[in-house]
Amino acid sequence: MTSATAIAQAVRSREVTAQAVLEQCLAGLEREGGRLVAVTRVLADRARRDAAAIDAVVAAGGDPGPLAAVPYGVKDLFDVEGLPTTAGSGLYADAPPATADADAIVKLRKAGAVLVATLNMDEFAYGFATINAHHGTTRNPHDLDRLAGGSSGGSAAIVAAGLLPFSLGSDTNGSVRVPASLTGIYGLKPTHGGLPMGGVFPFAHSFDDVGPFTLSIQDMQCVWSVLTGKSFAPPTRAPRIARLGGRFRDNADPEQIDAIDAIAPSASLVELPDIGAARSAAFLITASEGGALHRAALARDPMAFDPATRDRLIAGALLPPKLYAAAQDFKTRYRRRIDALIADYDVLLAPATPCVAPPIADPRVLIDGVWSPARADLGIHSQPISFTGLPSLCVPLHRPDQLPIGIQLIGKAGDEDTLFRFAVMLEEEGRIGVTSPTGLFQGDSL
After folding, report:
1. Which of 8, 56, 311, 380 falls 20 to 30 Å from 354 in CA-CA distance?
2. Catalytic annotation, residues
3. CA distances for 428 relative to 4, 114, 206, 413, angstroms
4. What is the per-residue pLDDT across 300-355, written as a single tens digit (0 to 9) for each?
């Protein structure tokens, strides 16, 4: 699949029609999508109407937008007009249809992007694996016997396979960054509240964010600009870099640490305080807010939930309100401490996941020398960053012929631009970049 910006340019310059782009995309999804278990619904009729409208604009001499005719998909928790919003659960398969598109979809449509599919996820976004009892387990396009990560696994896998040039997921504790790392693409968790959340099925409002997946930084910048309406400011100086130490180095692939040290060999090593407490508080807040959201449905029909999701939501619903309040108070104080600690730095470097994608047959990860369930612990490096509310861009290390793995570029609140600029530099140096799956999925180019 050609990049998003290349497709848009080709359509706007009349080198190819929007309808031709779409039919090629739909054929690829039909041919290859089933092996990934990434797609929950193909929206062919809607997409064909949108593509025809774009061609009409071009024929009339108009400009359909910076994402003209670019096909994309969304995690199965975005409202799509006329369809029930299921959040990956059979519980809401027959829910009343959404009366309007989610805000992010509206913005993308105005920019010319064409929505073609909804994508698989952990039920209610509660997990890091995209093991879904209703739709199945999403598979990693680099090795179909391995996890794609989650909870936005379908959104990551479909892009990594070259079947869509970009997609949208959501990130609460790492649900964009974890699958981006395991499938070897770019994934952004913005500053908390930085992208439109209207019409997105919630999980834990204290941490929920919309996040894009792309195959390049150029595409990421384009999607970001469309969703935020912001233009990019030129840099005023070189970014000040630090490396995160402590548990971020204790539980990581050695190649991640080597790559981070090679990127910034003389950068300060900064240890975030009370990481264990921060992650525990994040778990508690997430469980409490998720449990409260689903309390009525759990009481009404608990057996309709995925058993793994149900048990965690019930536990969260039973947490005492005083514990939740204490965790929220700790979060407020912690964020102030982190802001002070990183005041002299613009970019923090850290692993995105502790390892490459675990096998589906044995979905565990090694944490502190003990094997732990991947569904809960693949987010060991992403969850503490979500707790701070800071933006984090997962970028794929350049690892041809190896399973992919990523690192996080973490920035100051509201300063995603610096992360993008730094990633462009790393791309140009050959330190990061997407590697296509070998011999599995070959997306057709225009």
Report:
1. 311
2. 75, 151, 175
3. 19, 30, 36, 25
4. 999 999 998 999 999 999 999 999 999 999 999 999 999 999 999 999 999 999 99
Helix, strand counts (H, E) of the chain: 15, 17
Q: Are 152 and 175 in contact (CB under 8 A)?
A: yes
How far is residue 235's CA from residue 61's CA, in Å, rounded to a whole number? 35
Read off the tokens for 244: 């995160």
Burial of 369 (0-12, 13-18, 19+ CB in 10 A): exposed
For residue 77, what is the DSSP state? T
Rounded to whole angstroms, the Cα distance separating 34 from 153 reads 14
- Cα-to-chain-centroid distance, residue 110: 22
Q: 408 near 394, Cβ under 8 Å?
A: yes
Rg (Cα) of the chain, in Å, rounded?
A: 21
Mean predicted lDDT score pLDDT of the chain: 95
Question: Are 122 and 150 contacting, i.e. CB atoms less than 8 angstroms apart?
Answer: yes
Please check whether residue 14 is in contact with residue 176, taking contact to mean a CB–CB distance below 8 angstroms: no
Q: How far is CA 305 from CA 123, 153, 312, 414, in A?
A: 8, 19, 11, 37
DSSP state of 230: P
pLDDT digits (tens, 9 = 90+) for 383-429: 999 999 999 999 999 999 899 999 999 999 999 999 999 999 999 99
pLDDT at 99 over 80: yes
Single-letter amino acid, residue 170: S
Q: Give the tens place of pLDDT for each residue, 40-57.
A: 999 999 999 999 999 999
Evaluate the CA torsion angle 10, 11, 17, 22 in order and state its sign.
Answer: positive
For residue 294, the number of C-alpha atoms closer than 13 Å in the C-beta half-sphere is: 33
Residue 173 near residue 152, CB atoms below 8 Å: no
- Rounded CA separation 416/392 (Å): 8
Q: Which residues contact 195 (CB under 8 A, 6 or more apart)?
A: 104, 209, 210, 211, 227, 228
Query: Of 349, 440, 436, 438, which Cα lies nearest the Cα of 3?
Result: 436
CA distances from 145 to 181, 196, 253 (A): 17, 35, 20
Residue 165: helix, strand or coil by DSSP? coil
Longest dimension (CA), the chain: 63
